[in-house]
């Protein structure tokens, strides 16, 4: 797979994982919770992952918002941090 296509594929996977976790990455970027460097790093971590099939299988099984990312996810810490921010924001009456 050409490099550009691979990066687009993994960018889509990062976004899909975020959606499965109830995270709106566009909103997180707009609010400054993540920046372009964070996004680039997340996509590159995903691209280096050898568990893409396991990731796709996990996401396919999420019929509702998942409470936590799978342990195999190389971006689990980022997603947990964004979920934590969303929880705190919701508790304070805002939205992520």
Structure commentary:
There is one protein chain. This protein has five helices and no strands. Helix content is 65%, strand content 0%. The protein is mostly helical and 96 residues long. Helix 1 crosses helix 3. The protein has one domain. The model has no long low-confidence stretch (mean pLDDT 89). The protein has helices at residues 3-20, 25-30, 36-48, 52-60, 76-91.
Brief descriptors of the model:
96 residues; mainly alpha; 5 helices; 65% helix
Write the layout of secondary structure elements.
Layout: H1 3-20, H2 25-30, H3 36-48, H4 52-60, H5 76-91
Helix pairs in contact: 1-3
Describe the structure concisely for a colleague.
The chain has 96 residues and is mainly α. The chain has one domain.
Let me know the number of strands.
0
Helix % is: 55-70%
Low-pLDDT windows of residues:
none
Oligomeric organization of the protein chains = single chain
Number of helices: 5
Query: Judging from the principal axes of the Cα atoms, what is the shape?
Result: globular
Domains (count): 1
Order of helices and strands: HHHHH
Reported for the largest beta sheet, the result is:
none
Which band does the percent of strand residues land in? under 5%
Distance between the termini: 34 Å
Rg calculated over all Cα atoms: 13 Å
Mean pLDDT: 89
Structural class: mainly alpha
